[in-house]
Amino acid sequence: MRFFEFQDSNNKELESVVVNTLNNLRGEADEEGETSEISFPALQQIIQNTGYSMFNYELFKQMYDDSETLKSVVDDFNNEKIILKTDKETEKDPEMNIDDQGSTDVVKKMAKSALKKRT
Known about the structure:
Elements: H1 3-32, E1 37-39, H2 40-49, H3 57-66, H4 68-71, E2 74-77, E3 81-84, H5 87-92, H6 103-118
Antiparallel strand pairs: 1-3, 2-3
C-alpha cells in the first residue's frame, strides 16, 4: 500500500467520525425542534478523544471542501463554531421553501407524525 492510499483511507475514516458526531448532534436538535451549533474546540476535543490527535481546523476545512456528505450536515462554520443544518434552520431560510403549494410542509408533517408513532 502506498502512503497516499493510507492517507486517503485515514481521511475517509476521520470524515466518517466527524459526520457521525455532527449527525448525532443534529438529530438531537431536530427532535427538540431547535437549531444546533457546536464550538470548534469542543468538536476538536471529541474527535481527538476518539483517537485522531491530528484533527484541527485546517483539516476540517479541507474535508468540508472535498466532501458533499459533510456539506449536507454543516450549514456554516468558522474556527470558533460550527452551525449544523437542522429542520429549524431550514424553516428560517425562505429560499428553501420554493414550492408554492406547500407540499414539502405536508411531507414534513407526515414524517414527524410517523416518527412520533414509532417512539
